[in-house]
Amino acid sequence: LGQIVPSQAELQAFDRGARKEGLVMVCLKICPNNRCPDESVGFGLIKRNRGKLFITIDGKPVTAIKKLEGCHFMAGEHGLKWSGQAGTGAHDIRFRITDPALEPLELTISSIVVF
Questions:
Q1: CA nearest neighbour of 41 among 22, 65, 17
Q2: What is the mean pLDDT of the chain?
Q3: Structural contact between residues 72 and 66, judged by C-beta atoms closer than 8 angstroms
Q4: How far apart are CA 20 and CA 23, in angstroms?
């Protein structure tokens, strides 16, 4: 599953002309009483169980997650900053969940914010 963030419509509606820093933050749905269903996948699967959750930004792998309260900054081989698409500051963000033994798995995202 992938998406360009922000979309053209979001850029037209919200772009204030400020320079983008290249930071990408993803916020996950908060489960009631911190008890998520068994089929829910969190960002911990990137570190603990390689092979279950893959995230790429602009074709480059996310290699680390920096948590800030209920949200997470995505980091790659060059740290927290991503180059984005020339002139727009938009990013192609892709998520792939793989584990045939546990399908269907789900990653429930509440928001993606680009700074």
A1: 65
A2: 79
A3: yes
A4: 8
